[in-house]
Every structure is written in C-alpha cells, then in structure tokens.
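As a warm-up, study this chain.
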Amino acid sequence: MNVAVDMVSLNAPVRSFVDQPRQALINGRWQDAQAGETFEVFNPATEAVIAHVADCKKADVDLAVAAARRAFDQGPWPRMSPSERGRILWRIGDLILENLEELAQLESLNNGKPIGVARAADVPLAADLFHYMAGWATKIEGNTISLSVPYTPGAQYHAYTRREPIGVVAQIIPWNFPLLMAAWKLGPVLTAGCTVVLKPAEETPLTALRLAQLCLDAGLPPGVLNVLTGFGETCGAPLAAHPEVNKVAFTGSTEVGKLIVKAAASDLKKVTLELGGKSPNIVLDDADLSVAIPGASNAIFFNHGQCCCAGSRLFVQQKSYDKVLEGVSDAAKAIKVGPGLDPQSQMGPLVSKVQFERVTGFLRSGAEEGARTVTGGKRHGDKGYFVEPTVLEGTTDQMRVYREEIFGPVVTVLPFKEVDDELIRRANDTAYGLAAGVWSSDMRRAHRIANALRAGTVWINCYNIFDAALPFGGYKQSGWGREMGHEVLNNYLETKAICASI
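Now compare it with the structure written out below.
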C-alpha cells in the first residue's frame, strides 16, 4: 500500500477488502477476468493506488450475460413468490446498515466524498431504497378489462393484463454516487424479478463489489446479479450491445447515453437513461435569504458539484442579487476542502485526473470568455484532485461555463429584473431538463414558475431532497424514464394482455 497516511483511519474490514485483488462476480462466484488482467483504482485525495480489480472485457461479458440468461430462463428468481423476493431485498437493506461504517469508508476512500456525508446520506439512502422496493415486490399487479367488441356481437371475453419481468438487464452506473447509484439500479430490477449484469464506473468500483457480496449473503440466487469491473469501450460497450440483453439502464453523461442508444439500436432492446443537467435555480426578491442563500450554495457545492441535478445556473432577482452573490461567495470561501477521510472536510477532491482536467479547463474557458471569478477558480493545494468552490458572475448565455455541464463546484450567478416569460425562457434555454429550484415566499407564484419549468424535478424552497418514493429523471436530453418511486418499476416490466373467449 502507498497510502499509509490515509489508511490509518480505515477499519480492519476495509483494509482487508482493498488489500486483496477484487474479482468479478459471475454466476454467484468471484473470478478473475478471462484474460487475467487487472487495473488500478486510485484515491483521488492522494492520487495513490488503493486497489486492483478485474479488467473485464467481451469474453467476461459473454459469461456474465449467459449466467444472467440461465438464471432468468431456468432459475428460481423470476418464479419465486413476491413475498420471498421482498424478504431478500429487505435483508439486503438491513445488511447495508449493519455494514454502514465499512461502506462509508470505502466510498470516501474511493470516491473522495467526505466520510460524514457518506455515513449520513449515501449509505442510509442506499439501504432505504432496498427497504422501499422490498414492499413493492408484492404489489406488482395487472388489471381485468371489460371488452365491447363490435364485430363479435354477443361474444364474451375474459381479458386481463400481467406485469412480467423484462428479462436480462444490463446496468451501467456512474462514479459520483457509486453505492447509491448501484442501489437505485439494483433495487427495482430485482424487485421486478429480472436478472442483471451491473458495470460500475471504472473509477469507483469498490462499494458496488462490496454490495454484491452483501446481496449474496442475503440469499440472492447465483446468476441473478453479476458484476463486471472494466472500462466503457471494452466492457460497457459490448454489454450494451449484447444480443442476449433485453434492456439497458444507464446513468451517466448525455454523450455516453447517446452511444448507449446506438449500441442498443441493432436489436431494439429497451433503454432507460438518467443523464446530465444544467439546472436553473431561481431566487425571487421575496425569498427568505436566510434559507435561500445556504440552499443555493448546497445546490451547487454538494458532492463537490458532481451532481447531475446541481443548481449550476443561479438566477437572482435584481433587488436581492448583491446579497445572494455575496452570501453564496462567502459560503464557498468557508467550505473546508480536504481528504474525504478527514472528519473536518466538507468538500473532497474531484473523482479523477480526467474530471480534474475537465473542470479546470472550464475555469480557464470562463476566464478567457470574460466571466469574472468572485471566489475560487483555482486548484486547491498541489496534491490530489482538489478544486476550489467557485462563483462566477458576468457570464453570458453563450459562454461554455453557462451552457455546458461542468460537473464540478462551479456556479454562474445571473441577475434578472422581472418574473416574466423571458425568465422562464432563459431558465428553459438548455438541452437539459433534469432539475430546477425556486425560492420565494409567495407559494402561488412559486408553483406557477415550477409548472412552467421543463424539468423532471422542481424543488421549492429546498434543493437536493431525495426519497425512495419520489421519482427522479429528466426532460429533453436529461434522459428517458424515471428512477425511484413506483414509476421506476415500469423500466423493468413488460405488460402482457391476455384475452380468452368464455
């Protein structure tokens, strides 16, 4: 290990987990990649190697998909009683909570997020998702339908619908919330009775692998869940295109989402996508600034700005503009940036060198195009992928920092005069439509604005509020379908109509 300084805070199970090369899970067994290759996993706070994992490629994809296919076509999972499936899902949630500290430390070590956030949010929310979905296992129901068929007068029919699992599902998840995104994907797909091949992001595979162990411990049959670690081009692409996969569910960038659609087009397999965002956050003059300022700060700086729904375009009505700009800038300056495993840290590093270079590239672009940096704008320190929380003003609607998803702790603050059609036009003037925020003491006006915004989620006088019962997804190029809530089950179920003459 090259990370002794960081490792002193890790408990024994975490040390043991990262010290051993991590294998892929195929058909209920942990095994090396077929080519015997591995790749390195890094701590973004130190840039040091923390683990080695299997470098899975097409041969491994073929094995994993075949295992999932057998488990679906011949195995017990789709035929198990809904109550029994629900009990296993509930047990997975319990095991997540029983191993909370280990999972939180792994998440902080691998992703870089503050350990306190992982303990309080990521791990408990992952457990809650499984507990919530466990209750839905017994509530997947069809309907009976009364028919009136004009060309068969006097005939009677018994017609009904069934909701059936879609089959083998490929799921590809991102690196910003590795454990939580795995839970968002696995909870509903398992509830529906499908089998799955999960590919976590190559930057952050560790908690997905540990979660898979817990799923086996909970009683998940072999082949129901298979986990492949690998890179997008060599593992994710053949998985998305595999002819024995019935459905692809992807969370990540819009650019990669478009590639997923192309890969799935050859056999028209079903696809759901949860993609990028450039979310507007609107503060009206009548807003309670003691709530709106910290809320707007949290909207962009939570999880280092690495949130698809981050409130990265902050529109502030003219009367309150100076106070909000100053308040958000002061909040940015007060954030303690440091390693996630430091209990005092409030913002950790970006996840990787690639992401660090992307975000700092946007900061250079903003400066070159004339944006004014109110605070931040630079690298923090000289080791690790840390970037200062950054507030920009003076941006125009044509600048890259305004139009493109940065996926870092960078907010553009923009004044507006009136709550009118022009404000709504500017807020909606983006290729994305994932989320938005409105801050006002006039709830009638706030709801009217919320209704006009083209976004899958609109928060009023709050931001980043998530619950397993609340559907989440986007309009426009922010994706297809919804995560969470009962609506997510539509992603993994087919509707069959059956009609019998009686």
